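Here is the promised in-class demo. Please do not try to memorize the tokens; focus on the logic of going from shape to residues.
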């Protein structure tokens, strides 16, 4: 019985660890898309690099629209 308990305990810990990684990755992606990317673009504009910020914004917009239409 102890061996079965140990195996199930290890299996449960591995599953919970995997779930935690997936949750953390989702939170990190949301953090990057909602906070870091706009701050990066604003920083480029403030630094006078509008010619670089605008094409990046257009490319991200097109990718987002295509990905949203495919889903």
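The designed amino acids, position by position:
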């Amino acid at each position: 019985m102890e061996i079965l308990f140990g195996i199930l305990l290890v299996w449960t810990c591995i599953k919970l660890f995997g779930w935690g990684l997936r949750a953390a990755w989702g939170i990190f992606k949301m953090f990057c898309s909602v906070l870091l990317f706009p701050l990066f673009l604003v920083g480029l504009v403030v630094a006078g690099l509008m010619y670089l910020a605008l094409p990046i914004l257009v490319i991200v917009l097109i990718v987002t629209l295509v990905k949203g239409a495919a889903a």
